[in-house]
C-alpha cells in the first residue's frame, strides 16, 4: 500500500510538473507573443508614419517643382506686365498633369505683387486681395519660396508658392500651386494601407465650400478616395477616440495608426488615420517563436519523464534496502505519539509513548501493563472521541481507518493526572495487517475552542437579551395609544349603559373603534415578529430597502423622543449576508445615537442623518460627540458609556464583528462638525465603507 501510495504521489508530482510546464509555456508564449506583436505593430506603425511623412514631403516637393516651373514662363510675365489677365489659362497644363501623373487634382492661382488674385483655375472669381493670408503675404513681401499645409475655404490642401520674376529680374507677383491628399492616400493604398485624412474640428466653420462634401461629425474628410466603410466605422465608434490615438491601436482586425499634422504654431491641424489589416502584417516571426518554444517544452517534458522513471526505479531499489529498519526510524523521527497496532495489542511505538506514560520505561513494560493503548482511552461521551469498544464488528483502530473523512480524537491522562486531548489519524502499513496510529496533542486548541465558544455564547446572549428588551419597550410604547383608546371607549360605554343613554348606533361605532384599535395592537406584534423572525440563512437583498425597513422600525422611537431622522442616498446595491444580522447591526448604531441625543440635546434640536453615497454609509447625530479619550474603546466588548440599566457594552462590538469580521468591510467612528439649515452642529459619525 505504501509503495502504491508513493508511486501515486510521484506520478501526481510528474503530472503537476507537466501541467506547470505546459501552463508556464502557454503563459510565456502568450506574454512573449504579446511583446512580439507589440514590437511588430510598433514597427509597422513607425513604417507607416515614415512612409506618410515621406509621401507628404514628396508631394510638397512635387508641388513646389510645378510652381517653380510655371513661374519661369515668359508668356506669364508678359500677361502680368500687360495686365491682360483674360489670357491666363492653365486648363491644358492641369489636364496634362492629370493624364500623365498621379496628381489628379491640381489647382493653380496667380497673384500680382499687390496681393490681388488675378487667376484661379478652380473658379472665375478674381480681383480679391489675399494679403490676409500670412503665407502668401510672406512670399509677396520677402519674395521667398515656401510650402505649407493649411485649411482654407475649400479643403485641407498642400500649397507651394514661388515669386514671379521677369527677364530683367523685376518682381511681378507670385504663383501658387495647390494639391490635395488623394495621391498620398493612393500611394499608401499601394502599400496595403487605407487612409482617411481628417481636418481638425476647429476648422468646421472655416471650410465653407467643402471640396469632398465628406464630414464625420465636425471633422472634415479631406481625401475624396477615403474608404466609405472606414468612414462609417469611425463615425459609429466615436471619431474623438481615433483622432486622439497617441500612436496606434489594434481593433477589429486593423492596426490603426495616427499621424498628426501641426501648423507653424504647433497646433493640431489635421490627422491622417492609416488602416492596415492585421492579416497583411508579416507575423512569421511570432509563429516561428511559438514553434521553437513548443519544441523546447516537449523536449523538456521528455527529459523530465525519463528522469521520473529513473527516480522511481532508484526509489524502489532504495525502499527494498531500507524496508527492515524503516518502521523504527519513522516512528522515532516524529514529535507525536505513534503506535503500530492491530487494534487489540501494541506491536511497536516511538519514544513519545514512553515519555507520556512515565510509569513505564520501555515498550515491553507498556505491553505488560496496558497490552493496548486503548486501555488508557477516557470516555468523553462524544461520538468523535474513540474508546475501547466494538464498532459494528471492528475494533477502534479498524473503525478509524475505515472512516478517514472524520476527525477522531482520544483523551488520556498524563503523568500528573490531567486529561490531554489528541487528534487520531490512522494508516495501514504496506503488505502488513498492522495499523499505524498517530496521536497529535491538541489540548490547547480544545481548551481555546471551549473558551471562545463560551465567550461568544455569553456575548451574543447578552446582545440578544438587550435586543429583546428594546423590542419590548417599542411594543409597550406603540401599545399605549390603542390601549388608551379602548379603555376610554369602554369606560364611556359602561357609564352610558348604567345611565341607560347608550344608543345602538353609538354602541356600534364604539365597538368598531375598539376592533380597529385591537387590529393596531395585533399589527404591532406581527410587525415586530416579522422583523426579528427573518430567515437565518445568507440571502441577497437591496441595501437601501433593508435600511429603510430598519429606519421605519425605529419610527416610533424617533417620534417618542422628538428625533428627526433624515435619510439620503444616491445609489443602491445588492448585499449578501444574513438580513436579520444586518438589521440588528444598524439598530445598534441607531440605538446609540438615540441614547446620546436624549441625554445631551434639547427636544427641539435632535437630528440623525443617514447618508449612503458611492457605497459608503454614514450615520451621524448632533449629540455633541464622544470624548476622544474613549472614542477608540467604544467598540470593545463590555465597554459602555450608558447607565447600567441601558446597556452592557455589546451593541457596537456586535456591529464591529458583523461588518468587519464577518463581511470584511471597513468601519470608522469619529467626532465631526457639520452644518444643517445654516446652523453648526457637532456629533458622532459612524462610517461603513462597502467598497
TrEMBL record:
Keyword Lipoprotein included in the entry's annotation: no
UniProt keyword Repeat, yes or no: no
SMART domains hit by this protein: HATPase_c
Pfam families (alphabetical): HATPase_c
Substrates-to-products reaction catalysed: ATP + protein L-histidine = ADP + protein N-phospho-L-histidine
UniProt keyword list: ATP-binding, Kinase, Nucleotide-binding, Phosphoprotein, Transferase, Two-component regulatory system
Domain annotation Histidine kinase: ranges: 474-691
GO MF term list: ATP binding; phosphorelay sensor kinase activity
EC number, UniProt record: 2.7.13.3
CDD domains: HisKA
InterPro entries in alphabetical order: HATPase_C_sf (IPR036890), HATPase_dom (IPR003594), His_kinase_dom (IPR005467), HisK_dim/P_dom (IPR003661), HisK_dim/P_sf (IPR036097), Sensor-like_sf (IPR029151)
Gene3D superfamilies tied to this protein: 1.10.287.130, Histidine kinase-like ATPase, C-terminal domain
Protein name, as recorded: histidine kinase
Species whose genome carries this gene: Arcobacter cloacae
Organism phylogeny: Bacteria, Pseudomonadati, Campylobacterota, Epsilonproteobacteria, Campylobacterales
Amino acid at each position: 500500500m505504501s509503495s502504491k501510495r508513493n508511486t501515486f504521489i510521484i506520478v501526481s508530482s510528474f503530472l503537476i510538473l507537466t501541467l506547470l510546464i505546459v501552463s508556464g509555456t502557454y503563459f510565456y508564449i502568450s506574454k512573449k507573443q504579446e511583446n512580439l506583436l507589440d514590437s511588430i505593430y510598433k514597427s509597422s506603425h513607425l513604417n507607416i508614419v515614415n512612409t506618410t511623412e515621406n509621401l507628404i514631403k514628396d508631394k510638397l516637393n512635387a508641388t513646389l517643382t510645378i510652381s517653380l516651373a510655371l513661374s519661369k514662363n515668359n508668356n506669364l510675365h508678359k500677361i502680368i506686365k500687360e495686365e491682360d489677365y483674360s489670357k491666363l489659362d492653365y486648363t491644358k497644363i492641369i489636364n496634362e498633369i492629370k493624364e500623365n501623373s498621379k496628381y489628379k487634382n491640381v489647382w493653380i492661382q496667380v497673384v500680382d505683387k499687390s496681393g490681388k488674385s488675378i487667376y484661379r483655375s478652380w473658379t472665375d472669381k478674381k480681383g480679391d486681395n489675399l494679403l490676409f493670408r500670412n503665407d502668401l503675404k510672406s512670399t509677396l513681401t520677402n519674395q521667398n519660396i515656401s510650402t505649407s499645409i493649411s485649411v482654407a475655404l475649400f479643403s485641407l490642401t498642400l500649397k507651394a508658392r514661388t515669386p514671379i520674376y521677369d527677364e530683367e529680374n523685376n518682381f511681378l507677383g507670385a504663383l501658387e500651386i495647390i494639391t490635395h491628399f488623394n495621391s498620398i492616400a493612393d500611394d499608401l493604398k499601394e502599400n496595403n494601407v487605407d487612409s482617411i485624412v481628417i481636418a481638425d474640428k476647429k476648422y468646421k466653420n472655416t471650410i465653407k465650400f467643402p471640396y469632398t462634401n465628406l464630414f464625420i461629425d465636425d471633422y472634415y474628410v479631406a481625401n475624396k478616395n477615403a474608404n466609405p466603410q472606414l468612414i462609417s466605422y469611425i463615425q459609429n465608434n466615436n471619431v474623438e477616440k481615433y483622432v486622439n490615438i497617441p500612436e496606434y491601436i489594434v481593433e477589429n482586425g486593423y492596426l490603426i495608426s495616427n499621424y498628426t499634422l501641426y501648423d507653424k504654431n504647433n497646433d493640431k491641424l489635421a490627422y491622417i488615420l492609416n488602416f492596415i489589416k492585421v492579416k497583411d502584417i508579416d507575423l512569421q516571426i511570432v509563429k516561428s517563436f511559438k514553434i521553437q518554444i513548443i519544441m523546447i517544452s516537449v523536449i523538456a517534458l521528455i527529459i523530465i519523464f525519463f528522469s521520473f522513471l529513473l527516480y522511481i526505479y532508484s526509489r524502489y531499489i532504495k525502499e527494498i534496502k531500507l524496508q527492515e529498519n524503516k518502521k523504527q526510524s519513522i516512528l522515532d523521527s516524529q514529535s507525536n505519539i505513534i503506535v503500530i497496532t492491530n487494534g487489540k495489542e501494541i506491536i511497536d511505538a516511538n519514544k513519545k509513548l514512553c515519555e507520556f506514560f512515565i510509569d513505564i520505561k520501555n515498550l515491553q513494560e507498556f505491553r505488560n501493563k496496558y497490552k493496548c493503548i486503548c486501555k488508557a482511552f477516557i470516555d468523553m461521551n462524544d461520538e468523535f472521541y474513540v474508546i475501547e469498544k466494538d464498532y459494528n464488528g471492528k475494533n477502534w483502530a479498524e473503525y478509524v481507518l475505515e472512516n478517514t473523512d472524520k476527525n477522531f480524537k482520544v483523551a488520556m491522562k498524563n503523568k500528573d493526572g490531567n486529561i490531554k486531548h489528541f487528534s487520531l489519524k490512522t494508516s495501514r502499513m504496506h503488505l502488513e495487517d498492522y495499523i499505524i496510529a498517530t496521536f497529535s496533542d491538541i489540548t490547547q486548541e480544545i481548551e481555546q475552542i471551549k473558551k471562545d465558544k463560551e465567550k461568544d455564547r455569553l456575548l451574543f446572549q447578552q446582545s440578544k437579551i438587550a435586543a429583546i428588551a428594546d423590542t419590548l419597550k417599542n411594543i409597550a410604547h406603540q401599545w399605549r395609544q390603542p390601549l388608551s383608546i379602548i379603555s376610554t371607549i369602554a369606560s364611556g360605554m359602561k357609564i352610558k349603559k348604567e345611565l341607560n343613554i347608550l344608543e345602538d348606533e353609538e354602541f356600534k361605532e364604539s365597538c368598531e373603534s375598539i376592533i380597529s384599535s385591537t387590529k393596531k395592537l395585533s399589527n404591532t406584534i406581527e410587525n415586530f415578529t416579522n422583523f426579528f423572525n427573518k430567515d437565518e440563512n445568507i440571502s441577497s437583498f437591496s441595501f437601501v430597502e433593508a435600511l429603510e425597513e430598519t429606519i421605519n422600525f425605529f419610527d416610533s422611537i424617533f417620534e417618542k423622543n422628538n428625533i428627526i431622522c433624515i435619510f439620503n442616498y444616491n445609489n443602491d446595491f445588492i448585499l449578501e449576508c444574513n438580513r436579520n444580522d444586518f438589521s440588528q447591526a444598524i439598530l445598534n448604531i441607531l440605538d446609540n445615537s438615540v441614547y446620546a441625543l436624549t441625554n445631551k440635546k434639547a427636544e427641539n434640536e435632535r437630528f440623525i442623518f443617514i447618508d449612503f453615497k458611492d457605497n459608503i454609509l454614514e450615520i451621524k447625530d448632533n449629540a455633541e460627540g464622544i470624548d476622544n479619550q474613549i472614542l477608540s474603546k467604544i467598540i470593545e466588548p463590555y465597554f459602555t458609556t450608558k447607565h447600567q440599566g441601558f446597556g452592557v457594552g455589546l451593541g457596537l462590538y456586535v456591529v464591529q464583528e458583523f461588518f468587519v469580521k464577518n463581511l470584511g468591510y471597513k468601519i470608522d467612528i469619529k467626532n465631526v462638525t457639520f452644518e444643517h439649515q445654516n446652523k453648526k452642529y457637532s456629533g458622532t459619525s459612524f462610517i461603513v465603507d462597502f467598497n
